[in-house]
Amino acid sequence: MVVGRAPITSGMPTITGNLMSQGLLIPKKSMGQHWLNDSSALDAICESAQIQPGDQVFEIGPGTGELTAKLLQHKAIVTALEFDPELIPALNIRFKNMIPDQLLLEEGDVRTYNFTTISLSDYKVVANIPYYLTANLMRRLTDDIVNKPSTVVLLVQKEVAERIAAGPGAMSVIAVAAQFYYSVTLGRVVKAELFTPAPKVDSQILIMKLHPNPLYPDINADLFFRIVKAGFSQKRKTLLNTISSGLHIPRDETKTLLEQVSIQPQARAQSLALDEWVNLYRAIALKLAK
User: Fold this and answer.
1) Domain extent listing, the chain
2) Which residues contact 254 (CB under 8 A, 6 or more apart)?
3) Are the C-beta atoms of residues 85 and 107 closer than 8 Å to each other?
4) 122-147: per-residue pLDDT in tens?
5) What's the CATH code, domain 221-289?
6) Which CATH number fits domain 2-210: 3.30.450.20, 3.20.190.10, 3.40.50.150, 3.40.50.880?
7) Confidence band of 2 (pLDDT split at 50, 70, 90)
8) CB under 8 Å to 17, separation ≥6 — which residues?
9) Strands of the chain, DSSP E
């Protein structure tokens, strides 16, 4: 549903934050709303995304429009998707005098949003998202979306950002999936007290840049992630157990496959690097093809 393509002037909007302070906009706990108003932190998000004039940016959950205003200040072309219909009128008011065609406000849910409507070959996703949305959004950015964004910059719970950027020893399915498609790094930590209301934990900027060429172009992604998910299916168990039970391969054959690619059968999934998962995939794919 397109709510409005707001006409815009060259000056920056001044309305909002005051609507919140006046009690006219109140964050909803049920929607995980924590609004960031710190200019320095907002600048850091834009800098992490390397926003340039003319960049096409998809913003998830503009809220009161603080990050939106920064993106527009950098002269990005912004599509902002807002789940809370009660925020749309305030956003339309705030940005009513902005430049035509620079901002499109839509009401919708990113969990069901049709990304094929974004016909661009190069766009960026930039957002301060509710914590509860992170896992679902990461699945969409890795599994669901064919036309993946060239850059993703998300402000998420610090612990989650660290988990997605983790290396061998602390890997997870979400880390393997993210790093399969994107180079993943961490940006600035944003303290909880900079949000309204303050969450219980700090946040961190997560930066993901799409690999310009697939790292493993010959891989069947469905089978690859079936193997990865089998490996992580029982965190405390060894790969010998999880791969054997998850893929219904006899234990002795699983042991041979693991040793064939120099992976200890007693190793656990979190210890494997991305390349090791790929090597294991190749061994299993070759076996299944026989």
Assistant:
1) 2-210, 221-289
2) 239, 240, 243, 244, 247, 265
3) yes
4) 999 999 988 889 999 999 999 989 89
5) 1.10.8.100
6) 3.40.50.150
7) very low
8) 37, 64, 66
9) 2-5, 35-36, 56-60, 77-82, 103-107, 124-128, 151-157, 182-190, 195-196, 203-210
